[in-house]
């Protein structure tokens, strides 16, 4: 354990009858950009608050570089938090907001000036040093809040839904800024969010939290492409579930009889046997929709279904189709990699071919 940078060791936290965090054991690496991702009420913010010292676990311990910090008050931990409401002092200038914690630590004036000026330059806010928070935009306030938390170089920076109050374009811009800032300072960032896009964009690793437990801990690509459970598959992006029983196994592949649909071929990574139940997750972007059948050389090795277009939504970079086949309603995405007006037009209620490769589905549960 002493070799790990940050460790939650069998941590549990209850609020009355509610178990917010349920026996969580978790290790986070030094310098990592780590995200806690999950729906509202899943326990991710409670984990963050226990690390920051604002809540105490009912059981279990928290270690930072081998030191037990479970019972330490917040001011005795080198762990700082950035909240979504910024929490800047409205009557202080930006410079004084950032310098506040350094003054409390009785640092000498020249060292304070050096540190504050350096971090203002890092966040590209030097020209705004003598403004007040009310004179800044939301994105600028967020940068100041982050700079204030980083100025005395904590061991860990906690970010609790820090971009929630910003509009979409500003959030996207701030994601890039956060990633760049993390690379510059090299401090461990722990980011709490319910937005899977934010977590996927920023994180080295993600812990997907559900009902107080970690359902999967992996890199973004592994979580998206190889989800550990039905919950992870559905929470991280869109997916289609094909549920049924194995009817036959042929080498590395199996056939699943899906109720109300048809037989689906899938890569049998779970080594299931005939008769076993399975949920197969297939992401919408893996499924092709065409007016003509796929090339003959592909026909024998892929899943192909004659279907009907039920709904069409144009979304700029892609069009989303809902396809009806049997009793199944399947979501698919068609990216606009070429000039759309020159491509074949698929219309509502049209008969189409829906197809995907067996390797592009992933078995998420087998009971």
Global shape:
globular
Helix content: 10-25%
CA(first)-CA(last) distance: 35 Å
CATH superfamily of the largest domain: P-loop containing nucleotide triphosphate hydrolases
Summarize this structure briefly.
The chain has 367 residues and is α+β, with helices and mostly antiparallel strands.
General description of the model:
The mean pLDDT is 91. The protein has nine helices and 20 strands. The longest helix has 18 residues, at 168-185. A hairpin with a 2-residue loop joins strand 17 (318-325) and strand 18. 24% of the residues lie in helices and 36% in strands. The strands form four sheets. The chain has a six-stranded mixed β-sheet with strand order 6-7-8-3-9-10, sandwiched between helices. Strands 13-12-11-14-20 form a five-stranded antiparallel β-sheet. Strands 15-19-16-17-18 form a five-stranded antiparallel β-sheet, with no helix packed on it. Helix 2 (94-104) crosses helix 3 and helix 2 runs parallel beside helix 4 (138-150). It has two domains: 6-234, 3-Layer(aba) Sandwich (Rossmann fold), CATH 3.40.50.300; 238-365, OB fold (Dihydrolipoamide Acetyltransferase, E2P) (Beta Barrel), CATH 2.40.50.100. The chain has helices at residues 44-52, 94-104, 109-122, 138-150, 168-185, 196-202, 220-225, 230-235, 296-299, and strands at residues 6-15, 18-28, 33-37, 59-64, 67-68, 79-83, 156-160, 188-193, 205-210, 213-218, 240-250, 253-258, 263-267, 277-282, 288-290, 303-314, 318-325, 328-335, 351-356, 361-365. It has 367 residues and is an alpha+beta fold. The chain is globular.
